[in-house]
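Dig into my protein:

:::
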Amino acid sequence: MNTELMEALTILEKEKNISRDVMLDAIENSLLSACKNHFGTAENIKVLMDRETCDYSVYAEKNVVEEVTDPALEISLEEAEAIDSSLQIGDVAQIPVQSKEFGRIATQNAKNLILQKIREEERKVIFDQYFEKEKDIVTGIVQRYVGENISINLGRADAMLTESEQVKGERFRPTERIKLYVVEVKNTPRGPKILVSRTHPELVKRLFEAEVSEVRDGIVEIKSIAREAGSRTKMAVWSNDPNVDPVGACVGMNGDRVNAVVQELRGEKIDIINWDENPALLIENALSPAKVISVMADPEEKIANVIVPDYQLSLAIGKEGQNARLAARLTGYKIDIKSETQAIEAGDLPENYMEQMGLMGEEGYTGDYDDGYDEYSEDAVYDSYDENYDAAYNDYEEDHEEESEEIEFTETDGQ
């Protein structure tokens, strides 16, 4: 039993996760390579290796002839009889080859072949390890800034967080641990090249999967995500169990679950809404926290016209249009938002709403009301008008005190 070789292979298998069989194949190939360098050919060389004991033998098969013309392939009868007295002319003699007799160059080549195989297998193992984590999150340790890029240590491999995949304003300290989304893993001659991101919307989804057991188990599904990294994310969720509230599950007791994700994202705001197959209901939810009077959605053209109270227009659009922009990405609809006053002037308000508001006379509405509203099916139109505007506004102020301080509401110009 070759104890030293077995111990060496066992260490390689444990530390670098390289299979013993792979290394034994590499040793066989290195012995053949050494024989080729030493004898000039390896066509007649046979390597026998016991996979259990790691004992090996090397033989050169030579034809027994009367007169030797090629010493690498032939042997005289006299020499053959010294090895085995039963050999005759025309037989094939197996001549033991002592690897200790190999020259320095042959030995060095065999060593390099084994080392090269070890490096190749190590790169392959690392690639396979991180390829399995593609489209998932990993925890890395910040090493240093390389220009505007950040070198991240992921354990057995390094990744580079490029400037384009960084959240604007985020700064990290060396040795700080951060979570990253693995966008792609490429296999290169120098080892795996791992592309990671802090801006990808899927990072938010994976963080919720790690934090919320219902999402991880498939009870709650994250249907859609729209994100402006570092600022705000909108996420639509759906429950496969009628007894489970998807929004409540993601928020958690006292907001513990969503706060854990927000903390990891360095304070990025997250809006969690209910997903709905009805596009009008989905769009209304997506424009949250703004209240909506009506939504007219065209599923074929992917266009939606939304009417909101005058005092909600700024909130529906959001700062620099962010709320409307994220709602459009989340739903996949092009959303046109109008205030109540603008809709009345354009004649875009539904008849039932105008009747409730006393805008319809005996001969109907005198403005340029578009009868095309009736062309939309009930599934595509949702009237969320609240008859008591004052009560709705008071409810909004109580629920969104901080946001209401930042937004200027005007009921005259609808801006």
Summary: The CA atoms of residues 305 and 357 lie 20 Å apart.
